[in-house]
Write a structure and sequence with these properties.
The protein contains ten helices and 14 strands. With about 375 residues, the chain is α/β, with parallel strands linked by helices. The strands form two sheets. Strands 1, 2, 3, 4, 5, 6, 7 and 8 form an eight-stranded mixed sheet that branches.
Length: about 375
């Protein structure tokens, strides 16, 4: 497979060369727009905050509306993928009395890790981190700043890790061309979640008793270029806010869905060693296999697994075998046709309240 690795490396080198050539040409002829620091929702503990972001030339994406045309959606999508990253940019993060600097990679991505002596307001779940671009100077002058938001579980009994594609929203992820058409044609308003999903996830966030605020983390193999679209989708449709873990679509990372998702699960379980986890996915790709491995690697940490059934009988039989293996390891994996079935099981084991189950059922009935 050495030839394959050489081809991937050559493709990545060509991409880096082209990006650098285009950036330098735009800089030389005064065509660069103002720079911006785009933070992604982060996560952390009372001792450390983690925040990822990207430094880009402003790309002028307009806020999506329900009545946007296909052409307007397509124009925004082209701008997302035609973005010019600022390789090597230096960013400073400040939170309370703590600060840390990071240098962006060749794709403009940076990762911040802020060590804390104490969390100023431990009762709050979301915290603001101030970001400032230190280098290079933005065309037109002026300081470039933005504010990132970091989730620190404050009153949690468990945490949730959820897939997005074909779990929260219909994506046709097993058919690449179908998935691309769905993403290009729609926006955050016109792409609808599966019926009852918002109510079920809100029930999980609230847990079985008053005062809880369980964190929900979303994992997808979608590229980071779609981050604003997915963040808006969660907000527009009333899904609980949570960090999004996406992928950099480069020649060296394409096709590594399994490694990407399992890596995020491992990281989150390590970050929150005192919390049990609930995993949610679908039968369309490899979520059952990935979650089975997570259970094997972390005995006693996974409280329940919900798999939305979106496939044929043959795949259902495979998922059934995996569920039996997971059961032997002490965790329940439940294949469910809809959010109501998942909520019924969650209520039966004390993850959500009976009142929340009634709300999920009512929401599902209203959408039918």
């Amino acid at each position: 497979m050495a030839w394959r690795w050489r081809a991937i490396t050559a493709a990545r080198d060509l991409e880096d060369w082209f990006d650098a050539f285009r950036f330098e040409a735009k800089r030389r002829y005064g065509l660069l727009g103002r720079f911006e620091v785009l933070p992604y929702r982060g996560h952390g503990t009372d001792r450390r905050l983690f925040l990822r972001g990207r430094v880009l030339e402003e790309i002028g994406i307009s806020r999506s509306m329900h009545d946007d045309t296909v052409w307007e959606n397509l124009r925004n999508m082209v701008r997302r993928f035609a973005s010019d990253e600022i390789a090597g940019a230096r960013v400073r993060a400040t939170f309370g009395g703590s600060e840390a600097d990071a240098v962006a990679d060749d794709e403009g991505f940076f990762d911040i890790s802020l060590d804390l002596t104490a969390l100023p307001d431990a009762a709050e779940s979301w915290h603001e981190v101030e970001l400032e671009l230190l280098h290079p100077d933005s065309p037109g002058g002026g300081t470039v700043r933005s504010t990132g938001h970091v989730l620190v579980p404050a009153r949690a009994r468990f945490a949730v890790i959820s897939d997005l594609d074909d779990t929260v929203v219909h994506s046709g992820a097993t058919n690449v061309m179908k998935m691309v058409w769905i993403v290009v044609r729609h926006n955050a308003h016109t792409r609808l979640p599966f019926p009852g999903v918002s109510a079920f996830y809100e029930a999980l966030r609230q847990g079985p008793e008053d005062g809880l605020e369980n964190p929900i983390f979303y994992v997808s193999s979608s590229p980071w270029n779609l981050y604003d679209l997915l963040e808006d989708f969660l907000d527009v449709h009333g899904l609980p806010a949570g960090p999004l873990f996406l992928k950099d679509w480069s020649p060296t990372t394409l096709g590594k869905h399994h490694d990407h998702k399992l890596g995020i699960i491992r990281t989150l379980l390590e970050t929150y060693p005192d919390l049990p986890f609930v995993l949610i996915g679908d039968s369309g790709e490899k979520d059952p296999e990935i979650y089975r491995q997570a259970v094997a690697e972390h005995p006693g940490r996974i409280e329940a697994i919900y798999i939305r059934d979106v496939t044929s009988d043959e795949r259902d039989a495979e998922v059934g075998k995996i569920s039996a293996e997971v059961e032997q390891m002490g965790t329940t994996m439940v294949a469910v046709p809809d959010s109501s079935a998942a909520a019924e099981h969650a209520a039966s084991i004390g993850l959500i309240s009976p009142e929340a189950l009634a709300r999920v059922r009512a929401r599902l009935a209203a959408s039918s």
